Amino acid sequence: MNKELLNAIAYLSKEKGVSADVICDSLEAVLITAYKKEPDANPNAVVELNRLTGDYKILAPKTVVETVEDEDAEISLAMAQILDPEYSAGDVINVNVTPKNFGRVAAQAAKQVMIQRLREAERSIVYDEFSNRQDDIITGIIQRIEQRNVYVDLGKAEAVLPVSEQIPTETYTVGQRIKCYVVEVRKTTKGAQILVSRTHPGLLKRLFELEVPEIYDGVVELKSVAREPGRRSKIAVYSRDENVDCVGACVGPKGVRVQNIVTELQNEKIDIVKWDEDPAVYIANALSPATVVSVTVDEAEKTSNVVVPDYQLSLAIGKAGQNARLAAKLTNWKIDIKSESQAAELAEQKQDEPAGEELDGDDLLADLAMPSAPEAEDAAVCDVEADQHTEE
Question: Which helix (H) or strand (E) element contains residue 139?
Answer without folding.
Answer: strand 137-146
